[in-house]
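Lecture 7 notes: from sequence to structure.
We start with the chain below.
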Amino acid sequence: MLPPFPEWDAAHPLIVHFPIGLLLVAPVFMLIAVFVRKPAWTIATILLLLIGTIGAWVAYYSGEAAEVYWRTTGDLAPDIDKLMADHHVAGGQARLFATLVTLAFIVWAVLSVKLAKKRGVLIGLGLVILLGFLGANLRLAQAGHMGGQLVHEHRITAPYSSP
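Predicted structure tokens for the same chain:
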């Protein structure tokens, strides 16, 4: 028997790790797709990006619910309040950047079919998208680090209620 799924305001820790993992591994697939140019690598990269980006949106909104819970149920010290606000902003930016990179890579995939003979242009454009994605993942890692600080240093954990 599976354990009960937590309430929405407690689901963030359960949800957030999945898109982080997908989005951190996607650049490896993207690099292979840019240089190998086999449809399977491109499709796998797009799937990783889409699932990771959708997961980032879900994680963001579950994090908002957790933040509302903490802001309405307790007095947060000023340093914790600022860290939580910074985590919220970083998570939102990581979500936006993942969305933009996903869209850019899909455009690259379409162009790679239409401009198949322009290999140098496609590799260059793919590498530009990849560099942008590495920047996006840096912001994702910063958001994750701040979340880790909230949990491990300040004991801000998801609320849990028994079924």
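Points to note: Residues 8-153 form one domain. The chain has one domain: 8-153.
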